[in-house]
UniProtKB/TrEMBL annotation:
The active site is at 377 (nucleophile). GO terms for biological process: carbohydrate catabolic process. It comes from the Bacteria. SUPFAM superfamilies: (Trans)glycosidases. This is 6-phospho-beta-glucosidase. One of its GO terms (cellular component) is cytosol. It comes from Trichococcus palustris.
Amino acid sequence: MSFKKDFLWGGATAANQCEGAFDADGKGPSVADAMPGGKQRFAILNSQEFDWTIDKGKYGYPNHIGIDHYHRFKEDIALFAEMGFKAYRFSIAWSRIFPQGDEEKPNEKGLDFYGALIDECLKYGIEPVITLSHYEMPLHLAKEYGGWKNRQIVAFFERYATVVLGRFAAKVKYWMTFNEINSAIEFPTLSQGLIPSTGSDDFTNRFQAWHHQFVASALAVKIGHELREDIQIGCMQIYAPFYPLDAHPENQFSSQFKERAFDYFTSDVQVRGAYPTYMNRLLQEYDAKAPVLEDGDLDLIKQYTVDYLGFSYYMSMATDVIGAQGESDAASGNLMNGVRNPFLQASEWGWQIDPLGLRISLNDLWDRYQVPLFIVENGLGAKDVREADGTINDDYRINYLKEHIRAMHEAVLDGVDLIGYTPWGCIDLVSASTGEMSKRYGFIYVDLDDEGNGTLERSKKKSFDWYKEVIATNGANILEN
């Protein structure tokens, strides 16, 4: 067998996509709460007119309801336990702890909620894996301070991390700092709180915001290591191999450049502890000025590197800068753009399905960093159909996950140190890209449509029992077939 005896099988969610209760018990609004739902979500956020105003007369906001995990978490954790989860990756909503983000004292009701959630996991022997910031910085910090480009945010995050780690580190071993931190190269609104009217189109601001996040990440590692000797604090990013469409040297180089800019820059800093030498070329290509540093920043980044690398993997992307393919062959997905790979199939949302790409990714990351790897997101978004008898036969999801787990197995045999696998959206939740419910990932169906209609009743899909068997056999049921 390839997977360790203590391999962390489980599932993943995010506070802003599942909790709902967006203004309950003292919680303040987050940037996610101000993002309208619908297929035009990103277009709205990218417009100069968008100013973070929540306008319920004009837009719908599915995140405000989520799937009501805030009130139903005990029911949901019980279902995860029935599947046999060893780990549950979730995030803490920063604005549930510090509603505005710049307060001196935390909201105790928010801390009480996460304390209860953690205890519920531990009751079933489920290891919590907590992301400190998953696309939901307090809205006040984005509106009044301009997001992560402002150095003051570092101190506010340090206070938040100090409170949360101080309260829960004794019970929680695994943490991550920023979700998909590298996504800002394409879309800085989610992770950096930047919009066009506050300078998102200027890459100088993006690199400055990253620097502040690197400092904040190092501070979180420092805080955690001082609290608990065996604590594990990782970084988290999107990872996708970029394949050149053909052997043309320009496409080969384009592929290398995109992997450096998208896949490696942020992890090079957080894992290796220093800015890579190719950063100067990135600044030049993106017409950006070097970030302003304060005394001690580089030493802090160097001293407090992350303990492991967590990443999301959904797809690969092909690059073609010489125009061998036309515009009709454009492809995109998970904040990436490229061209259609003629050797791959794609999901209903156009995300190209590439299990072997996961093995390639694991090997590339392991060869580069030599730190434990943790796949904290992977899955297939699809429109599930509930039959007349209530069943949901999601064989397409089973097939997708089966092939990716087989790729993980091969990567481990290749020598990769892989510590866990938490597929995305283990229970249906609101899509980050569009705010839709119809783009479903879960093993558990939630009765809720894109307009917010439904009972919120939970029911098991066919993949529920399949994944239960995967966990029970530590993957052997897949590898033997």
